[in-house]
Write a structure and sequence with these properties.
Blueprint (H helix, E strand, L loop, with lengths): L1 E6 L9 H9 L2 E8 L1 H4 L4 H17 L4 E5 L2 H12 L1 E6 L5 H15 L4 E4 L22 H10 L20 H4 L21 H14 L4 H4 L12 H6 L4 H8 L4 H22 L20 H13 L5 H13 L4 H14 L4 H11 L5 H12 L14 H8 L4 H6 L31 H13 L2
Parallel strand pairs: 1-2, 1-4, 2-3, 4-5
Helix pairs in contact: 4-5, 6-12, 14-15, 15-17, 16-17
Bound molecules: flavin-adenine dinucleotide (FAD).
Length: 453
């Protein structure tokens, strides 16, 4: 018998439960990836490039036997099953709104040919939908969710490698006219981390050796290399969270804090699973009538925010880090999101879209809910009246100003924490803008609009 192993967000050969499942059912399998315009179109250059590099790495692990096709999976996968005579197609379940709809369409089209779509595992430590309150209702608040999550068995990493499955050498005819080469890179402005499974493991081991112990103390410091930067590897499944959970060890403040963050990833995926509309709409509909700014001046402010020229050094450093590394520190993601919504009075989804365009780890559940949290519209969101102060955020979390000087060259010569308020310098640098808004006044404006709701 023959099977198909369809890779999606699990571009690795180790810890692959779908390999075990495919090998238990069929003697030989065809490895496939589908380039799907509906996912790639909105992805942005950084993510597309990282994906292509990850695919090249996977293909090389499989001895050049990854078949890449382009098209609608609901047509391409059944055609391939027909071409190689497969009886089953193996995937890790997808829980996003699009992935879920796509898989239902694929499953139906396969069913018409008597081929089974077999879902094994997911990209999460605990798959979305599994954790509910005792009455079956979804959790809308993180802390009780996390208590339940902590009790669940996350499973041990599956013992697999490329040789777990006997791979079919794909022939041109298998993929038909849809078969393509892995596309060339379209390098973004940003410098990207190394792609691939080995890079993910190397990166993870270095983090555990050098930074895990101090993670809890330093995770809020954008000036220090204190976080793991594993988000992009998790996004593409170069490594599975259960491997990270197995690697963080038991106790210790760093390990506990790291586990909490991985739980946040599962929580937001769970919220999106139960409330798919929260990718686009306010989780709390009360905010639907919140007035937002529009017109030319709002557009100019939005552009200044995107380009990192708001005149608030910590905000600008972060927005330039986003361009420079296709990544931004979590503390700064919260700060720039709060700034867009509460200082500039622009809707969170515009910022969320800009993030998804540039982030290499851009991921719908964590991004949209991270934005809704900062905007005050989300699940257990920051209360709306909690407005981040763009200056004190910088002074607190970048106390020596190193982060600002790294990303804002106009301020490179300003020493120490004075860099956070250049307007107070005897001679402010002439090439750095003055603040585009008065934070105190805009904070009041945001609160007034909120109180009027
Ligand atoms: P670490 O601090 O090392 O955390 C370890 C892992 O835990 C991360 O890789 C990530 O998988 C998970 N994690 C950590 N914090 C969060 C969180 N707040 N929510 C969900 N998961 C978390 N994360 C994304 O992966 N993709 C996004 O598109 C994304 N957009 C965000 C937008 C906003 C406005 C905010 C506030 C947060 C967003 N996050 C997003 C969450 C978080 O900022 C990133 O996961 C984190 O900065 C990635 O860096 P790291 O791997 O060094 O994190």
């Amino acid at each position: 018998e023959t099977a198909i192993v369809w890779f999606r967000r699990d571009l690795r050969v180790h810890d692959q439960p779908i390999f075990l499942e495919a090998a238990s059912r069929a003697e030989r399998s065809l490895a496939v990836f589908v380039l799907d315009e509906r996912l790639l179109g909105p992805s942005g250059k950084a993510r597309r490039t990282f994906l292509h590099r990850s695919l090249r790495d996977l293909d090389s692990s499989l001895g050049g036997r990854l078949l890449v096709v382009r098209g609608d999976p609901a047509e391409a996968i059944p055609e391939l099953a027909g071409a190689v005579g497969a009886r089953s197609v193996h995937v890790a379940a997808d829980f996003g709104p699009y992935g879920r709809e796509r898989d239902e369409a694929v499953e139906k089209a396969l069913g018409d040919r008597d081929v089974e779509l077999v879902r094994t595992g997911s990209p999460y430590a605990v798959a979305p939908g599994r954790i509910t309150k005792s009455d079956g209702e979804p959790y809308r608040v993180y802390t009780p969710f996390s208590r339940e999550w902590a009790k669940r068995d996350k499973g041990a990493p599956a013992d697999t490698d490329a040789s777990t499955v006997a791979w079919i050498e794909p022939s041109e005819k298998d993929g038909g006219p849809r078969a393509v080469k892995i596309p060339d890179d379209e390098p973004p402005e940003a410098e990207l981390p190394d792609a691939g499974e080995q890079a993910a493991h190397d990166h993870w081991e270095a983090f555990v050796d050098e930074h895990l112990e101090d993670y809890d103390d330093l995770r809020d410091r954008p000036d220090k290399p204190g976080t793991s930067r594993m988000s992009v590897y998790l996004k593409y499944g170069a490594i599975h969270p259960r491997t990270l959970l197995a690697g963080v060890g038991g106790s210790g403040k760093g390990a506990t804090s790291y586990r909490n963050e991985l739980c946040f990833r599962d929580f937001y995926a769970s919220v999106l699973w139960f409330y798919p509309r929260s990718a686009r709409e306010n989780f709390d509909p009360k905010f639907d009538s919140m007035p937002m700014d529009g017109g030319r001046s709002a557009e100019e402010k939005f552009r200044a925010w995107q380009e990192g020229r708001t005149g608030f050094p910590a905000i600008d450093a972060a927005m330039r880090q986003l361009r420079g590394e296709a990544w931004m520190h979590n503390r700064m993601r919260m700060a720039v999101a709060s700034f867009l919504v509460k200082d500039l009075h622009l809707p969170w989804w515009r910022g969320a879209r800009h993030f998804l365009d540039l982030l290499v780890d851009g991921d719908l559940p964590s991004n949209q809910h991270g934005w809704q949290w900062a905007a005050g519209t989300g699940t257990d969101a920051a209360p709306y009246f909690r407005v981040f102060n763009p200056v004190t955020q910088g002074e607190r979390f970048d106390p020596q100003g190193d982060y600002v000087r790294r990303w804002v060259p106009e301020l490179a010569d300003v020493e120490g924490k004075k860099v956070h308020q250049p307007w107070k310098l005897a001679e402010p640098p002439s090439d750095y803008p003055a603040p585009i808004v008065d934070h105190k006044a805009e904070r009041q404006e945001a609160l007034d609009r909120f109180n009027a709701l």
